[in-house]
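USER: Please consider what follows.
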Amino acid sequence: MPSQFYPQFSTEGTLPGEKRLMLAVLADAVDIFLKGDGRDARSRRLLAETAEWIRADDDGPFSFVNVCETLGLDASCLRRGLVARAAARRIRLVRR
């Protein structure tokens, strides 16, 4: 969890409610993107929607870019890292 490495993102009352919500949204998206297996139609749709949210450059209040910016994260760097981790995970799953 980000709070393990970035204590300033701890959800134990140190962040305002909006930032805690944004952190929860981001953490859920990261979890879905990295661990989503796409085995059934529902999980494939959820994974596709999450990937689209991460790729989009829109400027809505809860867009990936705004969530990252509000939390002090570099959106493009996080995107690259997520894509690299997901690709490595999927390669490992195929090799099994």
Observations:
- Residues 11-95 form one domain.
- The chain has one domain: 11-95.
- Helices lie at 2-5, 17-35, 41-55, 64-70, 75-95.
- Residues 75-95 form the longest helix (21 residues).
